[in-house]
Structures are given as C-alpha cells and as structure tokens.
Design a protein that fits this description.
188 residues; alpha+beta; Jelly Rolls; five-stranded antiparallel β-sheet; 2 helices; 22% helix; globular
Length: 188
C-alpha cells in the first residue's frame, strides 16, 4: 500500500508543474520601485513619471500626459514558440481630448484607441502568442489635457492543459495502481 501511495504522489508531482501558472514576466509592473526601473522609455516623455496618487494598488503607479505625440514604455520578454501569454493591467483616464492609448506586442499593434472618455481604474486583459524569440511589449500614451494612470502590469504564461489522451493514460494508470494496491491489501 505504501508503494502505491508513493507512486501516486510521484505521478501527481510530475504532472503538477504543467498545471500551475508561471510567474509574471514583467519587471516592476506595479512601479513599486518609485521609478521606471525595468522599463525603457521613449518618444515624448513630457508630463511622464511615477506618482503616489492615484494608484490602483501598492504605493506607486505610472502617470502619462505627453502633449502632441506619444510617449512610451517597453520591456523585452522571453517567450516560447506558440506559447499563450496573458497580459493584464489597470488603466485610469482623466478624460479630455485629444488622447491615445496603444499596446504593441512584438511590433504588432494590439490596441490603439483614440479620444477615450474619462474613466476610473479599469482592468484590461489581452491574450498574446509568443514566437520563441524575445518579444517587446510596448505601451504608448498621449493625453493632452489630462493624464493616464497605469498600474499592476503583468504577463504570465497560460497554464499548459494536458491533452485528453494524456489524462486518459494517467487515469488508467491510477486505476491500475488502485486495483493493484487493493489486490495486495486483501491478500493479507
């Protein structure tokens, strides 16, 4: 019986890493260093910084108010070919026009919104696909009369979901082990 339990626990531990979400890939996604550590800034950096109010969570958030053209921040993240990644972040817009918010993944524009109305902290999520090469994640901001506030950025690799055939084999093996353990138990 102990041998059966040991084999069962071993199988679960082997399967567990594929069922757990990976750690976030973004550095300083909450801007909790109080600056843009981990991010590369480019473009129009006017009225851009890290502030202690308003924030979504923690102590700090990024603030963007470039006038007339986009300012941006970016990070280069490792990816797996065909890997699916979940991008999550929180955005707050002070309102007024003109304004623009942009998200670019590996050179491909995923979001490009112009003249957004004002709104309070809103969670946004996007699914992204990796190429196996490092991918650049870029956020662009323009907010002539007010500010965008940006916080809690994360990119995580989606959990690997075992294929049905894998689960069938695992289930068959576990049933076999249970039967073997039961047979051995009743022999005593």
């Amino acid at each position: 019986m102990r041998k059966t339990l040991f084999i069962f626990i071993s199988l679960v531990l082997v399967m567990l890493p594929g069922l757990v979400l990976s750690a976030p890939l973004v550095t300083n996604g909450g801007f909790e260093t109080g600056d843009f550590t981990g991010w590369t800034q480019s473009g129009n950096l006017g009225f851009t910084g890290v502030v202690d109010s308003p924030v979504h969570s923690g102590t700090y958030a990024a603030q963007f108010g470039p006038v007339g053209s986009l300012g941006s921040i970016s990070q280069t993240l490792p990816t797996v070919n065909g890997g699916i990644y979940n991008l999550n972040f929180w955005l707050d817009n002070g309102g007024g026009t003109p304004n623009e918010f942009r998200v670019i993944w590996g050179g491909d524009t995923k979001i490009d919104e112009l003249d957004l109305p004002g709104f309070t902290w809103t969670s946004l999520s996007i699914s992204l696909i990796g190429t196996g090469l490092p991918m650049e994640l870029t956020f662009g901001f323009r907010q002539d009369p007010s500010f965008f506030h940006f916080d809690d950025v994360s990119v995580t690799e989606a959990a690997a979901v075992p294929e049905p055939a894998t689960m069938l084999l695992l289930g068959s093996g576990l049933i076999g082990l249970a039967g073997y353990g039961r047979k051995k138990f009743f022999k005593k």
